[in-house]
Each structure stands twice: as structure tokens, then as C-alpha cells.
Amino acid sequence: MDQYYVNDDAQTKGEHEVHRESCSYLPKNKTYVGTFSNCKEAIAKAKTIYTNVDGCYFCIPDCHTR
Ligand SMILES: [Zn+2]
Fold first, then answer.
1. How far does residue 7's CA lie from ligand 1's centre (Å)?
2. Mean pLDDT across the stretch 40-59?
3. What is the pLDDT of residues 5-42, one digit of tens each?
4. Distance between Cα 12 and ligand 1 center (Å)
5. How far does the centroid of ligand 1 lie from the alpha carbon of residue 52, in Å?
6. The model's pTM
7. From ligand 1's centre to the CA of 23, what distance in Å?
8. From the CA of 14, how far away is ligand 1's center (Å)?
């Protein structure tokens, strides 16, 4: 299980990136999403916080789509 966070600041294309707690690129301004066994569940939950979300390329490449 990993703890996931979503960046409060949007990327240039408007999406909010979701990160694992252990990511080197974990942003300062973030909202705790929850603890999940996989990134897809974390993304689904993050979409209840921000409508436009995407997984971080570095820590959850399986959920990175853009
Ligand atoms: Zn990350």
C-alpha cells in the first residue's frame, strides 16, 4: 500500500498530477488522496478532488497518460 497525494497546482496543460509519497517530485502544495494498493484507485479518488488529473511520469508511470 502506498500513500498518494495530488498536486494543488495544475500543470501547464491544466492537469493535477498524482504522486506517491516517496516521489522525488512530490510538490509542496498538495492534498492527501489516500492509501491505495494501486495507482488506478488513487487516480479515481483524485478525480473526486480535481476533475483533470494524471499520474506522475516518474513515480506511477502505469497511470501516466499525457
Ligand atoms: Zn511523482
1. 10
2. 98
3. 999 999 999 999 999 999 999 999 999 999 999 999 99
4. 16
5. 16
6. 0.95
7. 5
8. 17
Sign of CA dihedral 12, 17, 23, 26: positive
CA of 44 to the centre of ligand 1 (A): 16
Task: Indicate the pairing of strand 16-20 with strand 30-36.
Answer: unpaired
Ligand 1 centroid from CA 48, angstroms:
19
Where do the structural domains in the chain lie, given as residue ranges? 2-63
CB of 16 within 8 A of CB of 8? yes
Cell numbers 496543460 correspond to what residue? 13
pLDDT for 66 beyond 90 = no
With a cut of 90, say whether residue 56 has pLDDT above it: yes
How high is the pLDDT of residue 12?
A: 95
Cα–Cα distance between 59 and 51 in angstroms, integer? 21
